[in-house]
Amino acid sequence: MTTIAVHGGAGDIPPAELTPEREAAYHAGLERALRAGESILAAGGASLDAVVAAVRVLEDDPLFNAGHGAVIAANGICELDAAVMDGRDLRAGAVTGVRHVRNPVSLARLVMERSPHVMLSGLGAEEFALEQGLPPVPNRHFVTERRQRELAAALTANAAGFSESLMGTVGAVALDAQGNLAAATSTGGTTGKRWGRVGDSPLIGAGTYAANDCCAVSATGHGEYFIRATVAHEIASLMRYAGLDARAAADRVVHEQLRQMGGAGGVIVVGRDGTIALPFNSRGMLRGSIDTQGRLTTAIL
Question: What would the CATH number be for the domain defined by 3-299?
Answer without folding.
Answer: 3.60.20.30
